[in-house]
Amino acid sequence: MTIEYWHTYSDAEEAVLTEKIKPLFEEAYPNIELKLTRMPYEGLKQQVIAGVAGDAAPDLMRMDIVWVPEFAAQNSLMDLSKLDGFEELKANTFEAPMATNYYNGGYYGVPVNTNTKVAIYNKATLAEAGLTEPPKTMDELVAAAEKLKSKGKYGIGISGIHAWGLAPWFWSLGGSITNEDYTEVDGYLNSEASVKALETIVDWNNRGLVLPVMLGGEPGTWDGIISGEYLMSDDGPWFYSTKIAEKEATGFDPLEETVRAVMPAGDGGSRSVIGGENLVIFANSKHPEEAWTFAKWMLTEEPQKIMAETGLIPSNKAAAEAMTSMNIPFVDTYVEQLKTALPRTPIPQWGELEAIFNLAFEKAIRGEQEPKAALDDAVKQIEAILK
Amino acid sequence: MSSSFMSPEIRNAPHTRKSRLAIGLRQWMAVLPFVALGFIGTAVFVLYPMVRNIMISFQDFSIMPNATNAWVGFDNYLKVFQDPNDRFFIALRNTFLNVAATVPVNWFLAVFFAVLINAKFVKFKIAFRTIYYLPIVTSWIIIALLFKYLFADGDGGIINFILHKQLGIISEPISWRNHYWSAMVMIWLFHIWKTVGWGVVIYLAALQGIPKDLYEAADIDGANVMQKFWRITIPLLKPITLFVVINLINGAFGFFPQVYFITQGGPMNQTHVIPSLIYIEAFQNMKFGPASAMGVMMGLLVFILTYTQMKKSEDSACFKEDR
Amino acid sequence: MRTSLINQIIVYAIIITGALLFVFPFIYMILTTFFLGTNTLPKPDQVFSVNINFTNYITVWNKNNFVNYFMNSVIVTSVAMVGSLLLGALTAYGFARFTFPGKELIFRLFLLTIFIPGVINIIPQFVIIKEMGLVNTYSGLWLVYIAGGVIGNVFFLRGFFESIPKELEESVLIDGGGNWRIFWNIYLPQSLPALGTLAIFIFQGTWEEYFLALTLIKSEALRTLPIAILMFNDKYSTNYGQVFAASVIALLPVILLYMTFQKKFVQSGYNEGGVKG
């Protein structure tokens, strides 16, 4: 019996998956063969849509947490909360990542790992800005960026015009997207604090402090940090796992040449964005029982600890506890940042909401529209899709 | 066409309705074994999809199994027109801009290079033709990746490197895909570079069909190069020019990989064309109804344009088979 | 009248500049494939001083099942090419040699559809393939590639078929052969250059086809080359050396095929006729 599993792990993560996870699972369940399919990131959503529609979806997929409600709303995922052993699994799992699977009274996936982004600084550039340790506040970061500007370097590491790139900065500066129940945007996305946060980002960009990559320029964040042209950017643990794996080939040791810290704090505190992936079982899975067996097993302590070697933070409580003593060199900052990190709005309309959010921010940052007007427009459009 | 292929008995047959029907049937039976598969395939995979597209454009359509797909009248069309960001109109505008910007340049370069390569004294004509045609036979995806790389931001991209560092024509590197006009220019250059070889090859073939004695006669009259070009070459190439221009217009109308792989419609959805918008609306946003509505409108537009072009070129022999 | 030397030099200078413009991006791409620095955009001055090595080609060939995808593309493209040629030639033969009521009307209708961008049809084509239960099969891909290409191929071939002199058929007719014999023994051999040219067009179009393959093919084992190339475009960063090494490998068969046969290249019969008329 073969179950097919789609994923988008990076090279370094995939190596752990195929060399350790797969043999371990197949040893525990000799009658199930795990077929691993790495999907191209380009056009991934289209692949999933066409797969589900054409009855060619796999049994399981490791899916970005923000997609789960959208696909659940299309009736393409199985409700796992009614299955045998779900309650036990839920009790062993952190609540916040579990909640990203909730839709319409059921859970349509289980969290396989969680992650967030932290601030990663180039050590040499940090020294060039006259600092010995990472800035604690946004004001300190801005001062450092001002200093580097004359040297042709960039200090404020916003990585792109999308929620994943913008949200940590927007939130840390005091902005918000919705109320806590994710039902209202009016008075949140266009609140005074949100407008001020966006105005600050616009102002930074106008003063030439923000990485060119935010608006699609070069170099990319990784290249910029490695070359020292960028003081910092925020990114996930895969920066470390990938770069450590490539250390021999590139001669760049990320642990030596960069330092990490939680996001510099602004009016909203030190905020980052919660990322991560959920294991979902497709509604037209040919082997739902075996797929569920794998999902349950994948969330137990042992496999969770193995995947944690790559810096992906376990959603299993015991594995996360054990991780602290595993001596993974870069993970501490991520665990620390997770305590204050926030999720993107977990609703089926997130995809559309994000498109509106991105456009409003891009218009304001490019000076096409005043920040207040851009956010007011966005609120109007989002309200229309939430109805 | 092909009246010569008709047997005399058919031509002379009395034109009663019954015999005509019988003859028609007989003719169909004769040809059917050859065209049946082609007709069925075209009907199922080209014509029926168009009909289906029209149906979907009036449905609240979900591609998922067991969806109800309720009929919603013109809702999808309204949604397209009521888009607060006017993406459809922007895409429509860009489509016409693409035609206006690329067709004249593409056409001029094709004639220009073809005439020069065709000059009597030029050696290695085939080698030149092969090189000019090379971009045509390569893949859109690969060339798009390549162009994104050549036009990369900062001095890391060779184009900026040459314009800024080497020549100093521009005061700072352009972030090409970052601004509307520079992104459009990049898309146009990409398209022209990739397709101009087609026109060159067509014109080269056409030039070989021009009788040499015309030029010799002009030489005797003492005409110079430019006079020969304007008085002999251009008029004689007129029918082929129509064929080339129609194809260039249709090519510029059908921009898709050019936009999808270069800008994905950015910045701020400003560089979209209708096909790229349709694709993203359907497969990113799962809005199949509005996507199909845009497809139907684009199809109608192309249909009308092509139809009028065909009517116009009726006499010019480009689409006329029986001469 | 001989062209003056200066004019000759100017003309050569222009067409050689043109040729360089078309070739240079390819050279730059090839130079980049020798570049081993991962994920960083190589700077132009670095690119020109790179040492030639084939490390990236070897890495790419062995990574992400690249060889399998290459072979898959060979299979998909060959079958689609043969099928398209055969079906196109048959249908074009019907249009060129037979008279039947509604012929020109049908031909016009077909022609009208040729200019409507293909992406518009992707959604319903997918739905149809899905209803036939052919998602995730090559049969599904072949059906759309072959059937979807009939019109264009007929458009291309009809003119050639019509220029074949009728007298050639007589020998077959004298032998008592019918329409099929004429098709096989006269029309196909007589239009080999046209068929060859068309074959290269079809080969190239299928070889690089991405959107339909991405939509229809779901199993890793069935993926084709364009998908494989985009696999090197990683989520977090792009390894340009590897992306372009994969691209060069993918371009090679098409370019070799084209270089080999380009001397026999022909254009659609309409064009040549257009000038003479």
Automatic annotation (TrEMBL), chain A:
Pfam families: SBP_bac_8. Gene3D superfamilies: Periplasmic binding protein-like II. Belongs to the bacterial solute-binding protein 1 family. SUPFAM superfamilies: Periplasmic binding protein-like II (SSF53850). It comes from Paenibacillus cisolokensis. Keywords: Signal, Transport. The keyword Protease does not apply. It comes from the Bacteria. This is ABC transporter substrate-binding protein.
TrEMBL record, chain B:
Pfam families: BPD_transp_1. The keyword Transmembrane applies. InterPro entries: ABC_transporter_permease, MetI-like, MetI-like_sf. The chain crosses the membrane at residues 28-51, 96-119, 131-151, 180-206, 236-256, 288-307. CDD domains: TM_PBP2 (cd06261). It is found in: Cell membrane. Signal peptide: none annotated. Coiled coil: none annotated. Its main location: membrane. The keyword Lipid metabolism does not apply. Residues 92-309 form the ABC transmembrane type-1 domain. It comes from the Bacteria. It is a multi-pass membrane protein. Keywords: Cell membrane, Membrane, Transmembrane, Transmembrane helix, Transport. Belongs to the binding-protein-dependent transport system permease family. PANTHER family: ABC TRANSPORTER PERMEASE PROTEIN, INNER MEMBRANE ABC TRANSPORTER PERMEASE PROTEIN YCJO. This is ABC transporter permease. The lineage of its organism: Bacteria, Bacillati, Bacillota, Bacilli, Bacillales.
From TrEMBL, chain C:
Residues 70-261 form the ABC transmembrane type-1 domain. It is a multi-pass membrane protein. It is found in: Cell membrane. The keyword Nucleotidyltransferase does not apply. Keywords: Cell membrane, Membrane, Transmembrane, Transmembrane helix, Transport. The chain crosses the membrane at residues 9-31, 69-93, 105-129, 141-161, 182-203, 240-261. Belongs to the binding-protein-dependent transport system permease family. This is Sugar ABC transporter permease. It comes from Paenibacillus cisolokensis.
